[in-house]
Specification:
The chain is of the alpha+beta class and 336 residues long. The chain folds into two domains: 204 residues, no CATH class; 128 residues, no CATH class. The protein is built from 13 helices and seven strands. The strands form two sheets. A five-stranded mixed sheet has the order 1-2-5-4-3. A two-stranded antiparallel ribbon has the order 6-7. The chain is globular. The relative contact order is 0.14.
């Protein structure tokens, strides 16, 4: 991919424009998709980062698992918390902390350690890895100390896209189960002969774990008393798409994985109003409140430019999730 990264601006523009024509979407998407995949290659090829990062989230569903038809523009990464000095005797995140006040203090200290590691250790490594393309630069985001922003030379503009790839790095996340997957940009799929190496291999969270991560997000939001957060409609779309694949069958057949996801959230992201104790067959909720549905419906319309083809109607998504909710809750006898 370095070969394409170092083409002239005109040559890259022509490549991304023709890729977009072939695929039927905006060239800014083809362009950013390439830089997302190039960034992943740099991270997961690097010996100095081996065993330190795992790819997760919506972009992994798109690029590693090929399960969703929307463009997810950022890279969610799990950082091995052993790099921060945790996981050792006397400093194990899984040890009993006690009160919510103590947990809050632990989380603050944990995130401060992560921010220090990202700026002092990880950022210089990333900058060194990106040096093969002098037009690309990286820095820690001024908005979030756990985000490294990678700026690439953008030739195309789309209001919904930023001309940067965000590495959203979270140490307080599980990275099991995970496996290796091949990742290839749209440009490499359309014009593989232009690439000396059209794909890379990444370590990513399995789609089954992401299924339950998404499902518990929806369960949490079903209990939200305040306005729905912007951007959350993507989780409903993603879970709906997963519900129509064998991933759903596999996940529903692995209730221990659901229990692991719930335990992690109850341990590190306590939320009384989320009612994670009810996130189990028999009492699981996926559907939003009436007010939440109204907000999500509008949010989903705003997402339209990010889809590769005509997306499913919102009512269809809600109908599909209603069926999925019933499937989950029908497993109550099996879970006992």
């Amino acid at each position: 991919m370095d070969k394409v990264a170092n083409l002239s601006a005109k040559q890259r523009s022509e490549l991304f424009e023709q890729t977009a024509v072939n695929r039927g979407f905006h060239p800014a998407i083809a362009e950013k998709d390439f830089w997302v995949c190039w960034s992943l290659m740099k991270l997961f090829d690097a010996e100095e980062l081996d065993g330190k990062l795992v790819f997760k989230g919506g972009t992994s569903l798109s690029k590693a698992h090929h399960l969703i038809e929307r463009f997810s523009e950022d890279i969610d990464l799990v950082l091995n918390w052993e790099l921060l000095g945790y996981g050792k005797k006397g400093d194990d995140p899984w040890q009993e902390i006690g009160s919510n006040t103590k947990l809050d203090k632990f989380n603050v200290a944990f995130n401060e350690r992560a921010a220090t590691y990202i700026e002092a250790t990880l950022l210089p490594i990333v900058q060194s890895l990106l040096a093969s393309c002098p037009d690309v630069r990286a820095h820690v985001s001024s908005d979030d100390p756990h985000v490294i922003a990678i700026h690439y030379p953008a030739a195309f503009a789309l209001k919904a896209l930023r001309p940067e790839v965000k590495l959203e790095i979270g140490p307080l996340a599980s990275w099991v189960p995970s496996a290796e997957f091949a990742v290839r940009s749209f440009a490499a799929e359309e014009f593989p002969k232009l690439f000396a190496r059209p794909e890379c291999t990444v370590t990513a969270i399995t789609a089954e774990r992401t299924f339950w991560e998404k499902a518990t997000i929806l369960h949490q939001q079903a209990h939200r008393a305040t306005d729905m957060l912007p951007g959350y409609s993507r989780h409903y779309y993603d879970l709906y798409q997963l519900s129509r694949t064998v991933v759903a069958d596999n996940a529903l057949g692995n209730l221990q994985l659901l229990a692991d996801v719930v335990e992690f959230k109850q341990r590190f992201y306590r939320s009384k109003w989320a009612h994670y104790e009810l996130a189990k067959p028999g009492t699981f909720r996926l559907l939003p409140t009436t007010e939440g549905d109204r907000s999500l419906r509008n949010d989903y319309r705003m997402m339209e430019p990010m889809f590769f083809k005509t997306p499913p109607q919102w009512d269809g998504i809600i109908g599909g999730l209603e069926l999925l909710e019933k499937r989950i809750n029908q497993l109550a006898d099996k879970a006992d």
